[in-house]
Specification:
single chain, alpha+beta, Pathogenesis-related Protein p14a, five-stranded mixed beta sheet, about 30% helix, about 20% strand, globular
């Protein structure tokens, strides 16, 4: 492994994509034996959801395949930049990290850190902070999850994308 990569400071950026329109229907049932990364994404999400009394998500191969195609495209064609999720029919969270490998749990834990900026009583983020990636993780009407990661060697970075169905962050609605 390139020792210079290990010395770079960690730079992490997150974005989310929510929806203000109707919700899509679930697309698949949870398989019995999930790959390790899928299990880690699902477990981390469901722990955050349980902490606020929201039911668990199910893993969707359809969403996982869609997120995998997207992160590979972003890695191969877009220099590992964030994807434009504006026209997506799914909710989405993204994480770009430089300087170290990011596990699925680390990505979800990073999104969940925004919880400190979310005010449930007013259903808003505290001033000068964002909390949309957190509210997507715990969105009670989202039922399915699919995620993927890509290592971007040239950029010495990684990109993580998770899709949610139905999408969350619907304007005017509380996540839970």
């Amino acid at each position: 492994m390139d020792s210079a990569l290990l010395l770079l400071p960690l730079l992490v950026l997150s974005t989310f994509h929510g929806s203000s329109n109707g919700a899509a229907q679930p697309t698949s049932a949870s398989p019995t034996a999930l790959p390790t990364a899928a299990s880690e994404f699902l477990e981390a999400h469901n722990q955050a959801r349980a902490a606020v009394g929201v039911g668990p998500l199910e893993w969707s191969e359809k969403l996982a395949n869609a997120s995998s195609r997207l992160v590979r495209y972003q890695r191969n064609k877009m220099g590992c930049q964030f994807a434009n999720l504006i026209n997506s029919s799914y909710g989405g969270n993204q994480l770009w990290a430089s300087g170290m490998a990011v596990t699925p749990r680390m990505a979800v834990d990073h999104w969940v850190q925004e919880k400190i900026y979310y005010n449930h009583a007013s259903n808003s983020c505290v001033p000068n902070h964002q909390c949309g990636v957190y509210t997507q993780v715990v969105w009670k009407k989202s039922l399915e999850l699919g995620c993927a990661q890509a290592a971007c060697v040239k950029e010495r970075a990684s990109l993580t994308v998770c899709f949610y169905n139905p999408p969350g962050n619907v304007v005017g609605e509380s996540p839970y």
